[in-house]
């Protein structure tokens, strides 16, 4: 049993208060720092990371995990010792939300997005979306490579509006006549990290056409959340892919008023009879 698993197994249910030293440490860190520490602790076993979660209010939206800290602890106990890895690559901090883009080995190699909601400096809610790691896509890109630097903080609101309009106009309504408002015409204008799609509008169009011809169109039905920081904007949507009910997490990089890069994960939403909590996959405020 690794250190973090032992810590959860022996103390998590009984924990109802945080130590003074933990509170002091928490006050010196940003919410971004705390979120990264929690995810990194899955690999490192850093027991102090638990102090960044409010044990009385922690709401879990991963439907394969029981609610609260006890549910998280049960999952960790099932991990083969030494198998877990969590390399946080990109972060977004937007108000009370922090989103992380992470390369995982969590019951196998996975690409994941985690979203944490904070109250009074502590994590009170968690959402995620995981997808198995695949080989490089037709343009030779992986689910993780590409730009990581946050820039254009002063353009955060404008970039969030752009992505929100893109999701509603292109992904939900399917009005492809307006695609040039959001993405440049040259293949080099749009860098794609989706596992099955090549760069540029030509790659996107070919992929969507192939799905439609196979009678398995990608359908975005509802957008639940748009958060962003500078040039990075994360969209959380619900819809259908490969004739299955799914959650779409799409991370976009924006430059000079255009979407120039895209990463994503698509996760199947299980039937309610299989849920281990009653909080739902979405439920953002």
TrEMBL record:
Keywords: Signal. Residues 1-26 form the signal peptide. InterPro entries: Cyclase_SnoaL-like, NTF2-like_dom_sf. This is SnoaL-like domain-containing protein. The lineage of its organism: Bacteria, Pseudomonadati, Pseudomonadota, Gammaproteobacteria, Vibrionales.
């Amino acid at each position: 049993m690794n250190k973090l698993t032992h810590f959860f197994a022996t103390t998590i249910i009984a924990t109802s208060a945080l130590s003074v030293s933990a509170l002091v440490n928490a006050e010196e860190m940003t919410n971004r720092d705390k979120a990264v520490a929690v995810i990194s602790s899955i690999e490192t076993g850093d027991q102090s990371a638990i102090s960044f979660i409010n044990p009385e209010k922690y709401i879990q939206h991963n439907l394969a995990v029981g609610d609260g800290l006890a549910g998280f602890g049960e999952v960790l106990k099932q991990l083969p010792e030494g198998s877990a890895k969590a390399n946080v690559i990109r972060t977004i901090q937007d108000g009370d939300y922090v989103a992380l883009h992470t390369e995982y080995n969590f019951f196998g190699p996975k690409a994941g997005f985690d979203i944490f909601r904070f109250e009074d400096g502590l994590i009170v809610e968690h959402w995620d979306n995981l997808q198995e790691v695949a080989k490089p896509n037709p343009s030779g890109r992986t689910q993780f490579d590409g730009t990581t630097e946050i820039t254009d903080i002063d353009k955060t609101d404008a970039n969030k509006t752009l992505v929100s309009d893109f999701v509603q106009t292109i992904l939900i309504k399917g009005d492809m006549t307006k695609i040039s408002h959001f993405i440049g015409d040259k293949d080099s204008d749009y860098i794609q990290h989706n596992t099955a799609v090549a760069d540029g509008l030509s790659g996107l169009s070919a992929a969507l056409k192939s799905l439609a011809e196979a009678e398995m169109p990608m359908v975005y039905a509802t957008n639940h959340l748009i958060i962003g920081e500078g040039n990075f904007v994360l969209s959380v949507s619900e819809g259908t892919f490969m004739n299955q009910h799914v959650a779409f997490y799409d991370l976009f990089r924006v430059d000079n008023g255009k979407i120039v890069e895209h990463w994503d994960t698509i996760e199947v939403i299980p039937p309610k009879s299989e849920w281990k909590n009653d909080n739902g996959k979405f439920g953002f405020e």
